Amino acid sequence: MTIRLLLVEDHMVVRTGLRMLLEGPSDIEIAGEASTAAEALEAAGQCKPDVILMDIGLPDMSGIDATREIKRRFPGVAVIALTIHEDEEYFFKMLEAGASGYVPKRAAPEELLTAIRVAAAGDVYLFPSMAKLLVRDYLSQDRPPEQKSGLNGLTDREQEVLTWLAEGATNDQIAEALVISPKTVARHRENIMHKLNLHSRTELVRYAIRKGIIKP
């Protein structure tokens, strides 16, 4: 599958460098470019990207607000933040806006490519330093520990899939490990999210930590 990518970056030099980097892999196609939030919204409707690489510091609107509006208009499009900011304020606001990934500009090219592929597959990619913020935020909420029991009616197989998902595995990786088809994994995942009333990979990870399924 070819991943259609929209680049949103107001600095032409940076955007050109990204295009040169991302034009190499055969599974990624640069579907469009934008230097402002307004251009990004227009391009998202015209070129129908699978993934949008979003800078947070845009001249007309923050990338956070642009992400929120893009997800409202085009909920099927995955947005990855590519930014110099690595603090909690921007990170959590982007997640709340609906971002499927958060990658600092200091990341290695391989990490950016991985983030794009993970987001295109419907999963969430968080740079390790940002994932630590997520875990720290959860632990700081001082909730009483809960036991593994009472997992809202999940079957044994769904609990297995939940553990793999919380650890960051993709559907294909889970399918190979459990010797089932990716379609079956997707069905289990849908059932898990419905039973637990979860709406994102972020919520799923928090749930798994709270229940002691995985350790931070």
Description:
By secondary structure, this protein is α/β, with parallel strands linked by helices. The protein folds into 2 domains: 3-136, Response regulator (Rossmann fold); 156-210, Orthogonal Bundle (Arc Repressor Mutant, subunit A). It contains 10 helices and 6 strands; from the N terminus they run E-H-E-H-E-H-E-H-E-H-E-H-H-H-H-H. The protein has helices spanning 12-22, 37-47, 63-73, 88-97, 109-120, 128-139, 156-166, 171-178, 182-196, 201-210, and strands at residues 3-8, 28-34, 51-54, 78-83, 101-104, 125-126. Strands 2-1-3-4-5-6 form a 6-stranded parallel β-sheet, with helices on both faces.
Q: Which short descriptors sum up this protein?
A:
216 residues; 13% strand; 2 domains; Arc Repressor Mutant, subunit A; 10 helices; Rossmann fold; 6-stranded parallel beta sheet; alpha/beta
Give the arrangement of secondary structure elements.
Blueprint lengths: L2 E6 L3 H11 L5 E7 L2 H11 L3 E4 L8 H11 L4 E6 L4 H10 L3 E4 L4 H12 L4 E2 L1 H12 L16 H11 L4 H8 L3 H15 L4 H10 L6
Parallel strand pairs: 1-2, 1-3, 3-4, 4-5, 5-6
What is the molecular shape?
globular
Mean pLDDT, as a whole number? 84
Please give the number of β-strands.
Answer: 6
Q: Which strand order spans the largest sheet, edge to edge or round the barrel?
A: 2-1-3-4-5-6
Query: From the coordinates shown, what is the CATH architecture of the largest domain?
Result: 3-Layer(aba) Sandwich
How would you sum up the major sheet?
6 strands, parallel
Structural class: alpha/beta
Number of helices: 10
What fold name stands as the CATH topology of the largest domain?
Answer: Rossmann fold
Helix content: 40-55%
